[in-house]
């Protein structure tokens, strides 16, 4: 299902939203993995597609490495899941509007199945990077969630 989405009069800091999404003609797609908007940055820069909270839904046990195009991870598995965060330093170097979620630059992990108490969800950093001074963060409460924000120095992640 698509819904027409046109905002021609909105302007904020010289950015104008002309509509967009994954459908042609300024349509906004609902229920897809990643919502996108086309933003007109003016005559010099032109139109640019910006991602908004692309998500990964995990429905099978295993290990999952997150790439640069994921900011929401929804886990619905009655078994153990391990999630590997991307390198924090590389994540920090992206331009503000190239983060998977341009609004905060974080990664949200959520147990939507309510299985984390019996089957923990482990989130692991890469190499010597830390997550709140440790190498692993565990979601062990049903329906738990955690948001991981890269530290400014690129040495790891903070949980908020």
Can you tell me about this structure?
This protein is mainly beta and 160 residues long. The protein folds into 2 domains: 2-51, no CATH class; 55-159, Sandwich (Jelly Rolls), CATH 2.60.120. The chain has 1 helix and 16 strands. It has one helix spanning 88-92; strands spanning 2-4, 11-12, 15-19, 27-29, 35-40, 47-52, 55-58, 62-65, 72-75, 81-84, 107-111, 121-124, 130-131, 136-139, 145-150, 156-159. The strands form 4 sheets. Strands 7-9-11-15-16-13 form a 6-stranded mixed sheet. Strands 2-3-5-6 form a 4-stranded antiparallel sheet, with no helix packed on it. A hairpin with a 6-residue loop joins strand 5 (35-40) and strand 6 (47-52). The radius of gyration is 18 Å and the shape is globular. Residues 1-33 have low confidence and may be disordered.
Task: Identify the CATH class of the largest domain.
Answer: Mainly Beta
Mean pLDDT: 76
Compressed to H and E, one letter per element, the order equals EEEEEEEEEEHEEEEEE
Q: What is the number of E strands? A: 16
Number of distinct helices: 1
Regions with little confidence, pLDDT below 50 for 5+ residues: 1-33
Gap between N and C termini, in Å?
34 Å
Which fold name corresponds to the CATH topology of the largest domain?
Jelly Rolls
Which structural category do the helix and sheet elements fall into? mainly beta
How is the main sheet built? 6 strands, mixed
Q: Strand fraction band?
A: 35-45%
Number of domains: 2
Query: What CATH architecture of the largest domain do you see?
Result: Sandwich
Widest beta sheet: strand line-up: 7-9-11-15-16-13
Rg? 18 Å
| Helix-residue proportion | under 10%
Shape: globular
């Amino acid at each position: 299902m698509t819904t027409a989405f046109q905002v021609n009069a909105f302007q904020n800091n010289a950015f104008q939203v002309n509509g967009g999404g994954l459908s042609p003609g300024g349509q906004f797609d609902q229920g897809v993995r990643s919502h996108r908007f086309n933003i007109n940055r003016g005559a010099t820069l032109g139109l640019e597609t910006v991602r908004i909270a692309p998500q990964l839904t995990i429905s099978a046990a295993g290990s999952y490495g997150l790439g640069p195009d994921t900011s929401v991870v929804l886990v619905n598995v009655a078994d153990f899941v391990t999630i590997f965060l991307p390198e924090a330093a590389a994540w920090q170097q992206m331009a503000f509007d190239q983060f998977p979620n341009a609004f905060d630059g974080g990664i949200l992990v959520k147990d939507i199945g309510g299985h984390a108490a019996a089957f923990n969800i482990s989130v692991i950093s890469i190499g010597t990077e830390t997550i709140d001074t440790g190498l692993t963060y565990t979601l062990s409460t049903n329906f738990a969630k955690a948001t991981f924000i890269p530290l400014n120095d690129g040495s790891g992640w903070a949980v908020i």
